[in-house]
């Protein structure tokens, strides 16, 4: 008899992400999640007592909270590297994007926003400009990923698009504007 993997919050989140990535956000139910975990749906509530609402908040935090890693180097290059990693993460779990852009998630983007703002301050921007700049950069990232995901899913691109090239060109413009 094989031993079942213990149920943990991390396993629940990873399995929910796998379901969303494969079937879409609309197909995520606690019963379907329980079936995928090979447990009764009620067992999930032991780890997430507030149910699906708490699960959705955890999914947002898992995908959207990606602070700029500490390190040395020119702030603009660190922001560029982080922005590419953030875009990849959002595209990897694009099914969570509707939650990220529409739900009020206290704290989900706070560490991300604060780390971007701090790096902009390190680059010489005053606090007020760094704060606005962090929102502009995050807005660019979220908006670009949402548009890219929509166009890829619908297949209705106006012209041949190199998504990486388009993203990088826009990012360069945003970073130049923040300089």
Automatic annotation (TrEMBL):
Keywords: DNA-binding, Transcription, Transcription regulation. Residues 12-59 form the HTH tetR-type domain. It comes from the Bacteria. The keyword Transcription regulation applies. Pfam families: TetR_C_1, TetR_N. Transmembrane segments: none annotated. Gene3D superfamilies: Homeodomain-like (1.10.10.60), Tetracycline Repressor, domain 2 (1.10.357.10). This is TetR family transcriptional regulator.
């Amino acid at each position: 008899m094989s031993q079942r993997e213990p149920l943990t919050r991390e396993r629940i989140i990873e399995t929910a992400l796998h379901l969303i990535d494969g079937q879409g956000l609309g197909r995520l139910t606690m019963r379907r999640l329980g079936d995928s975990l090979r447990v009764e749906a009620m067992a999930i509530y032991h780890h997430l007592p507030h149910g699906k609402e708490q699960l959705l908040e955890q999914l947002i935090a898992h995908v959207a909270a990606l602070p700029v890693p500490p390190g040395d180097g020119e702030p603009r290059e660190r922001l560029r590297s982080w922005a590419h990693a953030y875009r990849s993460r959002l595209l990897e779990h694009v099914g969570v994007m509707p939650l990220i852009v529409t739900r009020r998630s206290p704290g989900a983007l706070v560490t991300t926003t604060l780390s971007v703002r701090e790096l902009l301050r390190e680059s010489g921007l005053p606090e007020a400009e760094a704060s606005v700049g962090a929102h502009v950069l995050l807005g660019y990232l979220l908006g670009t990923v949402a548009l890219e995901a929509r166009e890829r899913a619908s297949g209705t691109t106006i012209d041949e698009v190199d998504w990486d090239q388009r993203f990088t060109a826009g990012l360069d413009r945003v970073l130049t504007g923040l300089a």
